[in-house]
Amino acid sequence: MKTIDINKIKFIGLLLFSSIVFTSCESYLEEDPLNQVDIGSFYQNESDALAGLTGAYAQLKSGNGYYRQQFLSNLYASSDQGQSSFNHRDFRFGTITNSEPLIERTWIDVYTAIKDANNVIARVPEVPEIDETLRLRILGEARFLRALHYFNLVRCYGEVPLRTTPVKPGEKGLPLSPVVDIYKVIIEDLEFAGQNCWGFNETRNGFTNNIGRVTNAAAHAMLAKVYVQMASSLRTAQAGDTGNEIYLTLTETPDFYYQKAIEQADLALQQPYYRLASDLNEYETIFDAKNGNNFEMLFDIQGASIAGEGTAVSNLFSPRNSGLAGGGFGGVNRLQPQYINKSINKNDLRYLNSIIYFYQDETNTYELGPGLTGYIRTVTATGASAGNFSRVFTSKYIDTDATTEYTSQQNWHVIRLADVYLLRAEALAELNQDPALANDDINVLRTRVGMTDLFDGTGLTMGEFREALLRERGVELFMEGHRWFDLTRMGVYNEYCIRTYGNNVGARGPEDYTWPIPLIESSANDNID
Predict the structure, then answer these.
(1) How far is CA 376 from CA 288, 331, 471, in A?
(2) Which one of 41, 127, 343, 390 has the lowest number of neighbouring Cβ atoms within 10 Å?
(3) Ranges of H-type helices in 270-416
(4) Signal peptide span per the entry (predicted)?
């Protein structure tokens, strides 16, 4: 259980892990190595600094293991929502080992991204010819990216090697760091980003914060998410949940972190440009492939129809060969009927307006059944019954213009405004032990889509509130990469997976709260036992 041999990463060029052979039904494409110039001579002016930062952004989707493809299905299959492809069987059964190739590739790509962020953070302060305000913005964006990478690592793998400077020749791999040290870096990076990143499309001194780059609102929102992760994980660990016991090294109380989360959520919600949809019709547009980076989206991974610039998001979450995504593999991430029936309110307008009701593939026609948990399937040519299909696809990632697996312009939404409202609702209720304090933040999300059934936490126990909150998060944020983290931090992973999959497949233990450190790291890094 360890990490890539960071000692063997070439931080001046792209890593070439030629020894790793990876195949998947979700991917038939190989990545070509991306060459970089010697960083020692590269960072000479503001253009170089911006180019280095752009390269750091590119690593979010340069390899198949991160936001371009596999990471998204890994998160989905680890949750209680659905099983994903057959390659993700061990994620669904909770039987992942340290030789699992899907976690290896994610590990490699995340640490590659950290390498590029570290280079920007280390080199840009030395650039002689640069506007100082722009310098701070570049550093803020790079530190946001590094914080995001380590936040993903610590939530997925637990204790990991913590590298915050470029590797030096001959330097060995690092040992695992306790989560308290990892979160210290994450918090410091996001605080810096919140202070130095600019607003959406903001211009200063002749420079514009281009759409798609990190904003100060995104930094505050992500920090609120970090604090809630820390607070709830520590709270459940103190209550005896051994799956979260690594959080017992944190130095403050859960209430301290909940209060910090409220403060950061307030700052995020005060920023200009961002707002909630005004009604149901507008809500339905926020997931359109051509409407990325809209007013509800705080930070997106950018998709593009240009070859090499897209992601597999649309393919992974939309029906295969339906014309709703590019060709080839796809359609692997679908909602399970038990999740729909047992863990959310399927009559919620947010669910009803973000699922696919009708589609056709090469042979059959699929129409959503009256139970809202699957499709009635008929042969298109004859109208004859072809049996029912007991899964549901989301409409959040449709891209009818995509022509291949990786030419989708659909963005992946890392964090959006609705999440911030729900995080603040949770933190207010937990801090004060009063579920009624969550009413406003939960109901503003309901009323924006025209729901008249409002939430009222008055009289609920905290246990009842947490159940209700998970239903709200489950229906608002389903298939957006948050669910596994919500279930683990709140200490209900086993309960909810059994609810969806039954006792045999759904059983989860403390060891399932994180993925194992990949064997490729433990076998190469002598500093990890």
Answers:
(1) 26, 17, 26
(2) 41
(3) 280-283, 313-317, 337-342, 349-352
(4) none
Rg (CA), the chain: 22
Name the nearest CA neighbour of 263 among 191, 186, 193: 191
Please tell me what DSSP assigns to residue 166.
Answer: P
Q: Are 36 and 115 in contact (CB under 8 A)?
A: no
Provide the angle, in degrees to the nearest 10, between the axes of the packed helices 216-238 and 132-157.
Answer: 30
pLDDT along the chain (529 residues), means of 10: 31 30 29 41 90 96 93 97 92 95 96 98 95 98 98 98 93 94 98 98 96 97 99 98 98 98 98 98 97 97 84 93 86 97 98 98 97 98 97 97 89 98 99 98 98 97 98 98 98 98 96 97 91
The two tokens of residue 356 are 């696919």
Q: CB atoms < 10 A from the CB of 378, how many?
A: 17
CA atoms of 174 and 165, how far apart (whole Å): 12
Q: What angle, rounded to 10 degrees, do the helices at 132-157 and 101-123 form?
A: 160
Do 55 and 23 contact (CB within 8 A), yes or no? Answer: no
The pTM score is 0.92
Residue whose C-alpha is closest to residue 39's, from 210, 168, 172, 139: 168
Please report, for residues 326, 354, 395, 397, the alpha-carbon distance to residue 323 in angstroms, rounded to integers and kept in the order given: 7, 17, 13, 12
Across 304-335, b (16+ Cβ under 10 Å) vs e yields: bbeeeebbbbbbbbbbbebebbbebbbbbbbb
